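Lab notebook, design round three. We kept the backbone fixed and only want residue identities now. Task for the bench partner: fill in a sequence for the structure below.
Input structure tokens:
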């Protein structure tokens, strides 16, 4: 009996303690709830806005979205309170205590916490944005959020912009973003400025600075933004750059000699885009090709630029021939042989060497250039022969005919263009070229990018007969295009007058 009585007393004590803890929890929850005040909420189909809001976090929030659409501006005060809401110090202390003492889940689930409040803010801002101009009451709260560092700066700015096109407010926020050293902030500011269009004109000075930024991403975004904010200013800038080729070339040569690998590659691309007018760079580009430690892609870019200089780069021809004759120079053939070919008849001294290379059937290997279509030295030599001396290309024609039946599209089309130059084919494969470029241009794989670049270069090699492709090429001049340099060069080769009319090379000449 004694043991039974003792057990009964112990159980009573435990029950009393549990009751005390539950009562304390209820009291604290009541205090927290009372501290929030008694705010009116609208109803829809008998449910409070807060109940519908809870369903917005569920896997299928469509009914809740429909409820808030039906409540319209009546739900606005509730949504604004949700944005402003901060967990009270009492709630945070009690939540910490509850977690440490393994409280019942239903207790902690209803306590406000920072993660839930953060998520709720994002949901509330999105719902406010759907109200558009009718949500003007939320602007002060949104502007405060846009200037904060709580992770909702961009969303708050975009939502405020949907409600009220208050230019001064928007420009102030964008100025702050673009003034930071944060690449993401700069980029987002430029993207939003492009969306503002002419309303962003007061920030034109910042855009002019950004188009000359060292970062290519920022330069491209700034160019796109300037085209939307003030297209006349962009055209004037292009014209100014085109009138100062000598100064631009000097800056590019400085970047090649003193810059890092990426800066050097971008400068080499810019020289190719400028073309014959930057022929003073010939000696520096030959030095790039001579350097055994130079990155293969830089050698490729240097050879391509030399090939764009025309007769002005004739002093480099003998050096290119000598470099091709060095043993065994397989890694550099994919860039050196096409560069020789681009000199046309000026490179006729290379014909004996090219005839010898027609027997080199071995595929070229270079891991650093592995993304480029695989070709043999014999094909590259035959292709160069078709450019330099088509009337002497009888030995090259069998090599080109074999390649013209390849299953690899890029190689097949290159061979067909070469056969056209040799007068074996009556016309170039323009229809196929443009169709394949259109089909693959949306791909971002390394292989596809390099393949399309080579096809765009082929259009330039065809020259004036490829005028039908000019609209496609001009579309590729957009700042976000992978192929804008190749397209600019192709346009100049097809129609120099059209290239000048649209302001090429323009910003592509910037280092």
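Proposed sequence:
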């Amino acid at each position: 009996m004694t043991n039974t009585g003792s057990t009964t007393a112990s159980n009573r004590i435990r029950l009393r303690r549990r009751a005390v803890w539950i009562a304390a929890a209820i009291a604290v929850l009541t205090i927290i709830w009372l501290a929030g005040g008694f705010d009116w909420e609208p109803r829809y189909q008998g449910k409070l806005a807060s109940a519908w809001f809870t369903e917005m976090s569920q896997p299928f929030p469509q009914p809740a979205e429909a409820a808030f659409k039906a409540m319209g501006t009546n739900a606005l005060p509730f949504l604004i309170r949700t944005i402003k809401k901060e967990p009270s110090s009492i709630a945070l202390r009690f939540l910490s205590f509850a977690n440490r003492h393994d409280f019942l889940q239903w207790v902690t689930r209803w306590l406000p916490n920072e993660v839930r409040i953060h998520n709720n803010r994002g949901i509330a801002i999105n719902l406010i944005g759907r109200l558009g101009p009718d949500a003007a009451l939320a602007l002060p709260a949104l502007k405060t959020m846009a200037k904060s560092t709580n992770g909702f700066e961009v969303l708050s700015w975009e939502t405020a912009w949907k409600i009220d096109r208050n230019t001064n407010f928007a420009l102030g926020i964008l100025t702050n973003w673009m003034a930071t050293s944060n690449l993401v902030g700069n980029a987002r500011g430029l993207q939003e400025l492009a969306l503002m269009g002419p309303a962003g004109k007061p920030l034109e000075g910042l855009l002019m600075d950004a188009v000359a930024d060292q970062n290519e991403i920022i330069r491209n975004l700034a160019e796109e933004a300037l085209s939307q904010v003030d297209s006349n200013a962009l055209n004037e800038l292009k014209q100014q750059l085109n009138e100062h080729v000598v100064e631009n070339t000097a800056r590019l040569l400085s970047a090649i000699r003193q810059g890092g690998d990426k800066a050097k590659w971008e400068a080499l691309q810019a020289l190719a885009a400028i073309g014959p007018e930057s022929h003073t760079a010939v000696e520096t580009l030959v030095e790039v090709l001579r350097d055994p430690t130079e990155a293969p892609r830089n050698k490729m870019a240097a050879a391509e630029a030399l090939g764009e200089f025309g007769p002005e780069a004739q002093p480099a021809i003998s050096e290119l021939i000598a470099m091709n004759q060095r043993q065994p120079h397989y890694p550099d053939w994919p860039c050196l042989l096409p560069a020789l070919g681009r000199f046309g008849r000026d490179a006729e001294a290379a014909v004996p060497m090219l005839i010898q290379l027609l027997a080199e059937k071995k595929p070229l290997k270079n891991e650093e250039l592995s993304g480029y279509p695989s070709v043999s030295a014999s094909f590259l030599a035959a292709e160069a022969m078709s450019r330099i001396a088509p009337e002497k290309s009888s030995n090259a024609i069998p090599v080109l005919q074999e390649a013209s039946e390849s299953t690899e599209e890029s190689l097949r089309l290159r061979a067909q263009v070469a056969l056209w130059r040799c007068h074996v084919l009556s016309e170039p494969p323009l229809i196929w070229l443009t169709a394949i470029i259109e089909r693959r241009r949306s791909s971002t794989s390394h292989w596809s990018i390099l393949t399309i670049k080579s096809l765009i270069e082929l259009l330039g090699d065809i020259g004036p007969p490829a005028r039908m492709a000019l609209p496609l090429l001009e579309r590729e001049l957009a700042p976000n295009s992978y192929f804008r340099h190749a397209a600019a060069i192709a346009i100049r080769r097809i129609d120099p007058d059209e290239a000048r009319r649209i302001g090429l090379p323009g910003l592509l000449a910037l280092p």
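Keep this in mind before ordering anything: Confidence is low (pLDDT under 50) at residues 32-37, 365-372.
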